[in-house]
Design a protein that fits this description.
With about 280 residues, the chain is an alpha/beta fold. About 45% of the residues lie in helices and about 10% in strands. The chain contains 9 helices and 8 strands. The protein is globular, with a radius of gyration of 27 Å.
Length: about 280
């Protein structure tokens, strides 16, 4: 009797063991697939928004859902019903005591208004310049705290960087509604963190690339080729992330750009027009 019991036990083990192993393998396989799908989803969430940079080369004004803006929401209409003639001049990477005051003086002489996308790290060095920019009649926005591409940084880093940038602006006495990510690179966290902090994302439709071209007239011509009602123009008022002397190229190019703005009957407005004008 003991022998037959032992036989039944061995038989149960021999038939049940492989089946149990198969179940375990299938279970582990499902786990690996789920982890793979989760990883792919996280990667897509992080990377896919970077395609928004391509909007610069289209005629779109903003991304669906207002994820970001490349142009003013709508060029305002004049009293005679004609299409408005507004554009927005914007400056990145400042403020700097070595260059921003010169850019401000140049804008005053040319009769132009602008929006300055300030780096939090630069604001901490020259907080009084934030007040001077506003006193001259220009708008303040943020370019983040550190000039690092968000695709190469963790979600936690991006969130902390944006919070630090807004904190620096607040300490300098400026509230901000708009954020331009460094290099125009947008990640999923860029969108979530900026919205959580109450800021919209602004890119551009025309840029001078003055950090790569030392010829002011060539910079101006590059911008003027894309100068149209609703355009958001990108320039730089500091050399903090550019080769030395970049701001001087901007300074000289502004004269040519202003001539074209006036010749075309355009006017410069703040990027706040993004919120104040209907889409």
């Amino acid at each position: 009797m003991g022998g037959s019991g032992q036989g039944r036990q061995v038989g149960a083990t021999s038939t049940g063991g492989p089946g149990g192993q198969t179940d375990q393998i299938e279970h582990r396989g499902r786990g690996v697939r789920l982890l793979g799908a989760a990883g792919a989803s996280a990667a897509a969430f992080h990377l896919l928004p970077s395609a928004l940079a391509l909007g610069t080369w289209t005629s779109l004004r903003r991304a669906p859902g207002g994820l970001c803006h490349w142009r003013l929401a709508r060029a305002e209409s004049g009293s005679d019903g004609e299409r408005g003639r507004s554009i927005a001049l914007t400056f990145d990477d400042g403020p700097s005591e070595d260059s921003t005051p010169h850019i401000l003086d140049r804008l005053d002489r040319l009769g132009l208004s602008a929006t300055f996308f300030c780096l939090g790290s630069m604001v901490d060095c020259s907080p009084e310049l934030v007040g001077e920019i506003a006193r001259r009649g220009h708008s303040i926005a943020t370019h983040g705290y550190s000039h690092e591409p968000h695709l190469l940084r963790s979600p936690l880093w991006v969130t902390r960087d944006l919070a630090a940038a807004k904190g620096s602006m607040a300490t300098a006495g400026a509230g901000v509604r708009w954020f331009r990510p460094p290099y125009g690179v947008v990640s999923g966290t860029t969108i979530l963190a900026s919205r959580r902090l109450g800021m919209g994302i602004v890119l551009w439709s025309a840029w001078g690339r003055e950090w790569a071209d030392p010829e002011p007239r060539a910079v101006a011509e590059r911008i003027c080729r894309r100068l149209e009602p609703g355009a958001i123009v990108l320039l730089h008022d500091a050399d903090s992330t550019s080769p030395p002397g970049t701001w001087k190229v901007t300074f000289e190019a502004l004269g040519h750009i202003a001539d074209e703005i006036h010749a075309r009957g355009l006017e410069t407005v703040s990027v706040d027009a993004l919120a104040d004008s209907p889409a």
